[in-house]
Write a structure and sequence with these properties.
The protein is an all-alpha fold. It has a domain of 27 residues. The protein contains 3 helices and no strands. The chain is globular. It starts with a helix and ends in a 24-residue tail after the last helix.
């Protein structure tokens, strides 16, 4: 586990809610407000498309409402 993954926070009370639960207007607002976090995510995890839907599956309960593949 990388140093960044060990310090990731997660809300365990709402495991059924994730980015997959949000509408496009809400996701656009999140991208704007958390632009620095998306840049850091690109640098540290290689996820550089801020519209890509993904979750860190190696963190327990992180993927909430992700649709089944």
């Amino acid at each position: 586990m990388s140093r960044c993954m060990g310090s990731s926070l997660h809300n365990y009370k709402c495991n059924d809610v994730s980015a997959y639960s949000l509408d496009e207007v809400t996701k656009a607002l999140i991208r704007k407000v958390f632009a620095k976090d998306f840049k850091l995510q690109c640098e540290k995890f290689g996820h550089c498309d801020d519209k890509e839907m993904f979750c860190h599956e190696n963190i327990p309960n992180m993927c909430g409402s992700k649709p089944a593949a």
